[in-house]
Amino acid sequence: MDFSFGAEEEELRVRARAWLTEHLVGPYAQAVGLGGPGSEHEGVEARRAWERELGRGGWIGQGWDAPEGAYGQRRLSLTGQVVWAEEYAALRAPGRVGHIGENLLAPTLIAYGSQEQQRRFLPAVARGEELWCQGYSEPGAGSDLAGIRTAAVRDPADGLFRVTGQKIWTSLARDADWCFVLARTEPGSRRHRGLSFLLVRMDQPGRVEVRPIRQMSGTSEFNEVFFDGAVAAEVVGGEGDGWTVAMGLLALERGVSTLVQQIGFAAELERVLGLYAASTTASGAPADPAVRDRLVRQWAELRTMRWNALRTLGAQGDPGAPSVAKLLWGGWHRRLGELAVEVRGAAAAAGPAAWAPDLPYELGLDEEQRLFLFTRADTIYGGSDEIQRNIIAERVLGLPKESR
């Protein structure tokens, strides 16, 4: 299989790099490298302004199944989207705060929403003006999403839903204008039945409360969200059909973004390799063959993940491709975190912030410590390894379902 890009993609690469270089100036230059996984708290205001800059350039919504310019966006092929994403990551442009609206909400509205919903929400996403978060997981329903208990009751007076319940692990909830919420709208329903996909404004004082979750890394990019009679005026895909819409959205969660993620992984691996080389040179000791072999394996696995991502990028409707990708990168990234602190040696266990949770993270966590701590969650969030294996076993291999 040929994984190279053609002349058209390389021409786009030059244009994309030129645009990014021209616009990553002033406050945006100061936000370069900020806002990646584990550091969503960094430079939020500058990154929100950068989102609008991307919108003015037409770079939001490149992959939407809509005519070019329908919402002010460019229309790029799948390989074109990969090129843009690679250049974006290579220049360490600010971490996106609008990616949930662009890559999850918008394609879902195009696939399942009404024309009125598309006209109302897509232009604001394309302009980088309205930010979204995802209200799926709950304290008792994470990987097993069908067990959600958040309820929504239609008010007979105005026909609107009132949402009550709790969501957890909600990224960007403090900055989002809207949240798409999976809620139970049929009293007494169980599992996949009786769910609806609702759109809820976050600015509802007294009805929507966001509480940051402090992690052992010292940061708080995840949040709890409490709904107490919050108003939801929009239902996507029809009342009671929320499970179909929610599963359609999850299939969009891993695609071009996986390749972008891998560029960040490559930079992290390069840093660990540099630390390994420096420590070996400084000590004068011969390289530890076991650690060296593990580093080589990490490099080879990263290349394999890239080829697998490119191979499966166009595999629409393949129920196993997203799960395989998640299994690959989740385990890979966690092993890299372990290698990072191992290469650092005893120094990785030092530092006041490493084991003093009452201190702010700025007082001591270095890059390797933060990488190690954050990657503990990689095989859990976004669907745990156990859930991904169940999906592959049941939906792809046709094995008997796990007993409950």
Automatic annotation (TrEMBL):
Cofactors: FAD
Keyword Flavoprotein: yes
Domain Acyl-CoA dehydrogenase/oxidase C-terminal span(s) in chain numbering: 240-397
Coiled-coil positions: none
Keywords carried by this UniProt record: FAD, Flavoprotein, Oxidoreductase
Residue intervals of the Acyl-CoA oxidase/dehydrogenase middle domain: 133-228
Highest rank taxon of the organism: Bacteria
Pfam families in the cross-refs: Acyl-CoA_dh_1, Acyl-CoA_dh_M, Acyl-CoA_dh_N
Keyword Repeat: no
Domain annotation Acyl-CoA dehydrogenase/oxidase N-terminal: ranges: 7-129
Family: Belongs to the acyl-CoA dehydrogenase family.
Name the record gives this protein: Acyl-CoA dehydrogenase FadE
Organism name: Streptomyces virginiae
Taxonomic lineage from the root: Bacteria, Bacillati, Actinomycetota, Actinomycetes, Kitasatosporales
